[in-house]
Amino acid sequence: MSEPEIENLLSETRRFAPAREFAAQAIAQPGIYDEAEDFVEFWSKQAKSLHWHKPFTKALDFSDAPFAKWFEDGELNVSYNCLDRHVEAGWGKRIALFFEGEPGDSKTYTYLDLLTEVKKAANLLIKLGVRAGDRVAIYMPHIPEAVIAMQAVARIGAVHSVVFGGFSADSLADRIQDAGAKLVITADGGYRKGKALPLKPAVDEALANEKCPSVEKVLVVKRCANEIAWDESRDLWWDEEMALVDKEHVAQGFSAEHPLFILYTSGSTGKPKGILHTTGGYLTQTSYTHKNVFDLHEGQDVYWCTADVGWITGHSYVVYGPMANGATQVIYEGTPDTPDWGRWWDIVQKYHVNIFYTAPTAIRTFMKLGSKVVSHYDLSSLRLLGSVGEPINPEAWIWYRDVIGSGKTPIVDTWWQTETGAIMISPLPGITETKPGSAMKPLPGISAAVVDDDGKVVGNGHGGYLTITQPWPSMLRGIWGDPERFKQTYWSRFPGKYFAGDGAKLDEDGDLWLLGRVDDVMNVSGHRLSTTEIESALVAHPYVAEAAVVGASDATTGQAVVAFVILRRSQLDHTGSEADITKELRDHVAKMIGPIAKPRTIFVVSELPKTRSGKIMRRLLRDVAEDRPIGDVTTLSDTTVMDTIKTRVGLGAED
Ligand code: WT7
Q1: Whose CA is nearest to atom 1 of ligand 1?
Q2: Which of 262, 267, 301, 326 could form a disulfide with 274 if both were Cys (CB 3.0 to 4.6 A apart)?
C-alpha cells in the first residue's frame, strides 16, 4: 500500500457499535479479555471443552522455542471430536453438511451420515496400508468426499496434504514428493463454470515416469463421469472400495502433538513451504475462534464459508473448527457466477444461511456488478458476515454490511495465516465497536505487537511490522523437513517474536490496520503467491533470459501478478507478435504452477533495475506496474535503466 492510501485508510472515521440485541445473545461476553490475561491458563480452559482420550497435565512447553508443544501429554482424536461425540450426545440427526453441487444437484449429510462415511473411509485407508504418521495427498473438488477423506485421514492418525485442485500436475508432483505421500485421493473431475474440469489427468501426469515413487495407490471419487485413463495396478474407485469395507471403526487417541496435516504455501523463495500443524492445539483454537468470532449457536445457525478445502480457510473453518462445534454448514462446489452471478445469494436464500464468511476480492467483484444482482434474493437470514484473506478496504466493508447484511449485521475482519492455523486478530461481535477496514485487536489469549526495523514496539499512531509475541495453540509446528527454514523465516528477524510478513499500523486508539505483505509474497484474490516462484517458472521457458515479478495493486483481486521479462531473442522459434509471446508465457506459468499464478500482464523489457550487488529492485518495478512516478533510483547500478523500461512499458500490451 502506498503512503497516501494508508493515510486515506486511517482517516476513516465511521464506527459501528454492536447492536444491543446482538450483544445480549452473543457467545463472547465482555469479561473475556480479562479472563485471558494468563494466556496459558485461558487456552488450557478452552482445550478442556474438547474430548480427551487422556487428559493433558501440562498446557504449554516452549522450552525448545520456537518449537512449541501444547497439551503434549494429552491424547485425543480429531475425528472423534468432530463427529462421534456429537452423535453420542444425541445430535446424530442434526445436519452437518448441506452440499450444493454446481450443476444444481444437492445432498444433505447428518452428523450420523458423516460419521458412518468417515468410519468406512478410515477402514479403507487402513486396508490400503495407510498407518498413523503416513502422508496422504488429497487433490479434489470442493465436495463432501473431500471433507470425508480429510476426516478419515485424521481419524487414523495419518497426515493429509491437500493440494488445491487449481494447481498444476507439476505443483502436485512437487508436493507429493516433498511429503512422501503414500496414497493420493482424487476425483475424475469437478464442476467449475458449467463444465466438468478433469482432475485425474493431472494426477496421472504427476505420477508418470516414476516421478513420485512413494505413491502406492490412487483412490478416485466419481464426480463427473468424464472419460479418464485408468491404471489397473494403481487406481481404485472410491465408491467400489467404500462398499466393501466394514462400517465400524473405533477412534483411538493420539498425542496432542501428533501431526494432523501439511499444507503448502508460498514463501519468498521458489520452493513452497509445507506448513505443519498438529492436533490438540489446532483443534482448540479453530473451534474456540469459530464459535466466538462467528458467534455460532450450534443447532440453530446455518454457517457458510466459501473457501475451498484446498486452502487453510477450508481446513480450519470448513472441516475442523465448525465440525468440532457441531455446526450445520453449507458447502458449494462451484464458482459464484454459475449459472449467473446470483448463485451465492440463491444459496443463502435456499439454506437460510445465518453466518457467511468470504474474501474481500469476492465482495469487491459483487460491488462492481452492482446491488441489483443481489436484490432479487432474500438475504434476511444473514446475521453475521466475515472477511478473510487480505485487507478489506472501507468501501467494500460498508457495501458488504449495507447490501449483503441489510445495514445491520456485524462484520468480522479476521486476520490470520496458513501458519497461524486459526484466527488471531479480529473483532468479537457483540463486544467490539468496529471500524471499516480494521481487523481491530488480537483475540483473547493472543498477543501481537507492531515493531520498527530494530524490533522496537511502536506506539499508537505508528506503523511497522506485525509480530506475534507469545506462542498460540494453533501455531505451525514447523516446515515439513526443514526446521532451519522455519527458524530462519519466522523467528530470526525479530528474536523471540514470530514475524508474520505483514505491515501494520496502530491507530490512535491502538487498533490494528493491516497493510499487506512486506516480503516477496503477493496476495492475489486472497491467495498467496511467491514472486520468486513465478520468476523461476518464467526463466524455465526457453524464450526467457531474465524475469522479475511484482504484485501490483488491483481494484478487484487486491494484487495482480505483473511480470517483466527479458527475452532470449535467439531462442524464439517463431516470428509471432509480442502478444503471442506473452500469451505463451502466461500459459506456461499456468501450466507450471496453476491458473491462479498466471500473470495479468507481462512486459517485455531489455533491462531490469538492479542494485550494485545484483538484487532486482522490485519496488521500482511496482511503481511502473502501478503507473506511479518512479521512486528513488540512486542505489541502482545503472540509473538510466528505469527510463528505458518506462518507455518500453508505454508500448507494452496488456491483456
Ligand atoms: C496472508 C496469509 C488466513 C486465510 C487466508 C489467507 C493476508 C489474511 C487478512 C486480513 C489483511 C490479511 C496477510 C497474511 N491476510 N487475512 N483480514 N486483513 N490481510 O491465508 O494464504 O496463509 O495468507 O493473507 O497478508 O499474511 P494465507
Answers
A1: 417
A2: 262
Residue 477, classed as helix, strand or coil, is coil
Provide the pLDDT confidence category of residue 520 given band limits of 50, 70 and 90. Answer: confident
The response to whether residue 427 sits with its C-beta less than 6 Å from ligand 1 reads: no
Beta strands in 384-525 (DSSP E): 384-388, 411-414, 448-451, 463-468, 478-479, 498-506, 512-517, 521-524
Torsion of CA 516, 518, 522, 526, to 10 degrees: -30
Provide the β-strand partners of residue 276. 262, 478
Residue recorded with cell 474438547: 50
Higher pLDDT, 648 or 242: 242
| Inside any domain, residue 382 | no
For ligand 1, atom 21, name the residue with the nearest CA.
Answer: 528
CA 517 to ligand 1: nearest atom: 25
In a domain, 616, yes or no: yes
Residues 606-628 pLDDT 10s? 889 988 877 888 889 999 999 88
Distance 532 CA to ligand 1 centre (A): 19
DSSP character at residue 315: I
CATH code, 537: 3.30.300.30
Classify residue 251: in a domain, yes or no: no
Q: How many CA atoms lie within 13 A of 465 on its CB side?
A: 19
User: Any residues with CB less than 8 A from the CB of 35 and at least 6 apart, and which?
Assistant: 42, 444
pLDDT > 90: percent of the chain: 85
Confidence of residue 652 (pLDDT cuts 50, 70, 90): very low
Domain range for 547 = 521-654
Condensed to tens digits (0 to 9), the pLDDT of residues 476-515 reads 999 999 999 999 999 999 999 999 999 999 999 999 999 9
What integer pLDDT is reported at residue 574 of this predicted model?
Answer: 66
Paired sense of beta strands 302-305 and 328-332, if any: parallel
> Is residue 448 pLDDT above 80, yes or no?
yes
Do the Cβ atoms of 481 and 462 come closer than 8 Å? no
Count structural domains, the chain: 1
pLDDT per position as a tens digit, 216-254: 999 999 999 999 999 999 999 999 999 999 999 999 999
Q: In this structure, is residue 550 part of a structural domain?
A: yes
| Contacts of 57 by beta carbon, 8 Å cutoff, 6+ apart | 73, 74
Please state the separation of Cα 305 from the chain's center in Å: 12
Average pLDDT, rounded, for the chain: 94
The dihedrals phi and psi of 98, each to the nearest 5 degrees, come to -100, 105
Comparing 62-71, 134-143, 377-386, 591-600, the range with the smallest average pLDDT is: 591-600
End-to-end CA distance of the chain: 24
439 lines ligand 1 (CB under 6 A): yes
Residue owning grid cell 454448514 = 329
Question: How far away, in angstroms, is 389 Cα from ligand 1 center?
Answer: 4
